[in-house]
Amino acid sequence: MSIFRLAHLSDLHLPPPKGAFGWRDLLSKRLLSRIAWRRKHREHRPEVLAKIIADLKTHAPDHVAITGDLTNYASPAEYVAARVWLEALGPAREITVSPGNHDALVGAKDGESFAAWTPWLGDDDAVIFPQIRIRDGVALFNLCSAVPTAPHLATGRLGQAQLERLDVLLGDAAYRDAFRVLLIHHPPIPGAVAKRKSLEDQDALRAILARHGADLVLHGHAHEAMVSTAPGPNGAMIPVLGVPSASAMGERGHPAARWHAVEIERQANGGLEVKIVARGLDARTGEPTELGRYVLTQACRPPAPSRNPDEGR
Predict the structure, then answer these.
(1) pLDDT digits (tens, 9 = 90+) for 95-140
(2) Do 95 and 133 touch, CB atoms closer than 8 A?
(3) What is the DSSP annotation of 32-68?
(4) What is the pLDDT of residue 218?
(5) CB atoms within 10 A of CB 300
(6) What is the pLDDT of residues 42-99, one digit of tens each?
């Protein structure tokens, strides 16, 4: 038996470096984000993120999945700063980044803005989605729902080309025996977030999952611990899990910072057991601790996303 440990964190909102906002940004959506950051910077703290990362490293995961929002304005200076942060986190082959809506606030619609993060997007040298990384029998399908949107919108979209590629890849027999994990920023679940923040083509994605299946979907964006399911083939239900922001103080109606350890254990009889261990800041001490754990089963069929599923366990 062996265990593959996948760490999941999201919505880092790294502090914008000096020069991240210029006079040209006064005429773009970045102005609204800068105004919002004056409020949010009290909630998203680098010292909180540092505690979460230190705790994550003590558990030595085999791979780290980050589902978006490393930046706030999607400025060139932030892309560079985020790359420096990623380099300090660990080797690029052990970290996969799925961009979020804040990472595509403005800019190119074809993903060119993420070129600085290419080594963390996948094993392909091109900025293209989805990308697949195979690690010890686990296949990570990295999607990108991050696209520029109009002011006051935070919607996501995969687009027809990406959906068509995913349809082919999930149907490929080469990945049939792998544990297939989809990484995406926006939750592909109806009602998980407000319409102005939702994934526009989630129905198309869910149709692909219903046709080909997957073993797990990980997302961010909602800043909540969420557990739900999406229909798979032949009545199977695919677990869909969201994690709160990894830098949150927990003072604005959302949970304090946490990360999830996804432990995929291969049983002697050939089966799999998937355990989720939630770790985050203790409300009393402000230090990282285990918040709860649970095992994923096919019997988990909640009718709608539930929040904070690990609390009280």
Answers:
(1) 999 999 989 865 655 556 788 999 999 998 888 999 999 999 999 9
(2) no
(3) HHHHHHHHHTTTB-HHHHHHHHHHHHHT--SEEEE-S
(4) 98
(5) 14
(6) 788 999 999 999 999 999 999 999 999 999 888 888 899 999 999 999 999 999 999 9
**Spans of all domains in the chain:** 2-307
Q: State how far the alpha carbon of 134 is from the alpha carbons of 40, 61, 141, 173, 282, in Å.
A: 36, 15, 9, 14, 34
DSSP tag of 195: G
pLDDT tens digits along 136-169: 999 999 999 999 888 778 899 999 999 999 999 9
Alpha-carbon span 277 to 5, nearest angstrom? 10
* The residue to which tokens 């539930």 are assigned: 306
Amino acid at 240: V
Q: Would you say the C-alpha torsion 130, 133, 139, 144 has a positive or negative sign?
A: negative
DSSP reduced 3-state for 284? coil
**How much of the chain is helix, strand and coil, in % rounded to 5?**
30, 25, 45
Q: Tell me the C-alpha distance between 263 and 275, whole Å.
A: 5
* CATH number of 2-307, picked from 3.60.21.10, 3.30.930.10, 2.10.109.10, 3.30.230.10: 3.60.21.10
